[in-house]
């Protein structure tokens, strides 16, 4: 049962905390077992919006499958010195050294920078803080005007509501795009926000349309992307002919249903490979008969990025 630990800093923004916490809480309600913890250097944290929040002083025991997230707080973030003590910074470094993932929302990136976790890595933050973050942490590569950035198990997001996008991404990585879509629907949030194409998920990138039929079919593909899905069955599920589905899908997403499924498989396989799986193992887990098709699709994707 994985844990997510939220590290609370004085004057934190409520939505920076509440948005991601709701995403993981909803995932737990749907049967994915997340346990949420809130830790701080003081038992009571006063938020920027005036609501006090209670936190624990003692951290739970964490393993590589657990997440740590630092919500942001009211800017300017570091005018009064370091945001956290060296003891907290060392806890973040130690979790990352042991294979864990560290994430931040908005100005929470400053805590990651203080811990040295942004050195040599790509990162982002609120658009109003990007220049200051780059100035303070010169070894970091600040990517501007994107929703979130992931680099070697350090994940940073832009301002305030983008923490929800970040949390949905983390859920999609752990549990697949269908679970992330279910969580988004439970939260009644717009799960189709587009950011930088290199950073967003396949699910988000191809959901910015208004076709109910295509969304319905995408829901099925998201849930069963590792299975062999016949076009005839997808069309029947959507209540249209195969010809109508193919045309509508292309108009809405720019892809055929098969290419959409292949994109989901390739993205999921890439995450598995980054987590230590071999190419052959990742290919089998996402539904490819062997690694040849996966290698071909990944090569095509890399070529498209550099074109």
UniProtKB/TrEMBL annotation:
Record CDD domains: GATase1_AraC_1 (cd03137)
Keyword flag Ion transport: no
Keywords: Transcription, Transcription regulation
InterPro entries with a match to the protein in the record: Class_I_gatase-like (IPR029062), DJ-1/PfpI (IPR002818), Homeodomain-like_sf (IPR009057), HTH_AraC (IPR018060), INH-QAR (IPR052158)
Matches recorded under Pfam families: DJ-1_PfpI, HTH_18
Domain (HTH araC/xylS-type): residue spans on this chain: 215-307
GO molecular function, one term: DNA-binding transcription factor activity
Keyword Electron transport among UniProt keywords: no
UniProt name for this protein: Transcriptional regulator, AraC family
């Amino acid at each position: 049962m994985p844990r997510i630990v939220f590290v609370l800093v004085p004057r934190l923004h409520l939505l920076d905390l509440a948005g991601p916490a709701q995403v993981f809480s909803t995932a737990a309600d749907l049967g994915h077992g997340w346990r949420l913890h809130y830790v701080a250097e003081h038992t009571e944290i006063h938020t920027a919006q005036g609501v006090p929040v209670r936190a624990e002083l003692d951290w739970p025991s964490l393993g590589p499958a657990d997440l740590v997230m630092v919500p942001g707080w009211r800017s300017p973030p570091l005018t009064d010195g370091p945001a956290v003590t060296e003891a907290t910074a060392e806890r973040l470094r130690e979790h990352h050294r042991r294979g864990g993932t560290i994430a931040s929302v908005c100005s929470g990136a400053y805590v990651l920078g203080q811990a040295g976790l942004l050195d040599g890595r790509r990162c982002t933050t609120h658009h109003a803080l990007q220049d200051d973050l780059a100035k303070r942490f010169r070894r970091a590569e600040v990517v501007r005007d994107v929703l979130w950035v992931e680099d070697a198990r350090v994940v940073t997001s832009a301002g305030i509501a983008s923490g929800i996008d970040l949390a949905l991404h983390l859920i999609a990585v752990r549990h697949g795009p269908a679970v992330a879509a279910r969580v988004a629907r439970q939260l009644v949030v717009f799960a189709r926000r587009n950011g930088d194409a290199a950073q967003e998920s396949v699910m988000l990138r191809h959901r910015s349309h208004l076709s109910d039929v295509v969304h319905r079919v995408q829901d099925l593909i998201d849930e069963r992307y590792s299975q062999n899905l016949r076009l005839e069955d997808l069309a029947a599920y959507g209540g249209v002919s195969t010809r109508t589905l193919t045309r509508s899908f292309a108009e809405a997403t720019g892809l055929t249903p098969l290419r959409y499924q292949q994109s989901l498989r390739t993205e999921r396989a890439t995450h598995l490979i980054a987590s230590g799986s071999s190419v052959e193992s990742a290919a089998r887990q996402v539904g490819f008969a062997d690694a040849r098709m996966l290698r071909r699709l990944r090569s095509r994707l890399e070529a498209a990025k550099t074109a």
